[in-house]
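**User:**
If convenient, please work through this fold.
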Amino acid sequence: MAALAASALLVGAGGWMAGAGLFGGTPTPSGPDVAGGASASAASAPSAAVLEPSPTPTPGPVMGGWYAGASGLGVADGAFASWLGQPVTIAGTWADQDLRAQTALSPLGAEYQAWTGALDIAIAGTVLGSGENYAAAARGAYDARWRKAAATLAARRGSLESPTFVRLFHEMNGFWYRNWAVNPGNVEHYKAAHARYVRILRERMPTVYISWSPNFRDHSGMPIERWYPGDDVVDCIAPDYYNDTQRNWTRAAWTAAADDVDQRGNPLGPEAWRRFAADRGKPLCFPETGLKPVGGVTDQPEWIKAFHAWLTTHANTASWELGDPIPAEASGKVLYSIYFNVLHDGMRGYTIHGAGANPRSAAAFRSLTWGRAPSP
């Protein structure tokens, strides 16, 4: 979705995600290696080596399960969580609108300053509406700015016990962000630029996770294998997924469309995206998802309910230590979903809370249980 001038915050505890469970760190033995070494001429045998016991490793924070949350109206002040009546475990925000936002990651110093839960943040890499491009990015033209952004991210989020997911050049397979749009002429530079920024982020903040976030419907004209940046620089497959058709959805219609692919075989429906993620050995995430006002048909409770049922069926239950590689058990499983509760371009039709829109969908959303703790 469009880069936002205002970001959103879910206030409150990180819920079941923060806590101890896995062990980390390298034990360092202390004390002498050998005590009482004897003279070579002594009649008695040399003393045996005496080693002090290694210290017990400190438990590290664990992550996993299915994080569920929102962005937009009512999130920063807790109204969304109060309305929903259940914990929200991840927030979504954007710091990709302009040069200042991309460098300072402005939301992390404002409404997200006190947020300690899981967070998805889109930080782009090139400035919209400028002459910046992937070729220059691949050569390192923006490295200094990217390093500042990585340092800010690490300072604000690096010591927390909840995960941070970063999206670079989000919806790069669309046509609406000119600087980020991939095409046959720039795709190799795009992949090199993505990999370059990922290396900078991981070097500064080893616990960061990279969510590769195309639009669910491709507009690049290329098969996905051509513009996928590579398993080594992606942690999560994270399409932005909306109800953007005028049809009146039923549960059966949603299920039938969930496995759709386009004419090039690119994933389109959530199930097709899930299979792509599983094939890559990655979890599936939805950083932006929800209703979209198209042709006046917006309030779609059956779409909400069908998508929720599918999310629940495929929710991740695996857990691992924060900063560790995501385990194979999470492949093809839903790691997080974030409802786009934003007045985008002033349109209420995206929202389910705070703007009086979509009352039937709002009631359906509120009646459901979102998120799941990892298995013990």
